[in-house]
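Sat 14:20. Reprocessing the chain from the morning session after the first attempt stalled halfway. Input below, unchanged.
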Amino acid sequence: IYVVDESNAIVAGAKVQVYGTFEDYEKEENVIMSGETNAKGFVQFKNLKEQKYYLLITKGSLNNHQTVNETEVLRVKGKNRFEIMID
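Finished this time. Tokens:
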């Protein structure tokens, strides 16, 4: 997952939380995995199942509530890449 801001600049140090259901995302409970973006705005999660996930990304007052908050159904083989904007 690559995280950028509204000016398309890389966001390092953003907290990324992964949820298995929209309800958990809304309530911000039952986090499956979490991590922080590196200096290149990237965070990687491994061993996720082939399903759709919901992402909460925050840094300071920035978040992804108004942009993308869910993934496509992930492919088990190969890599899944997402670029998400926070504002």
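The mean pLDDT is 95.
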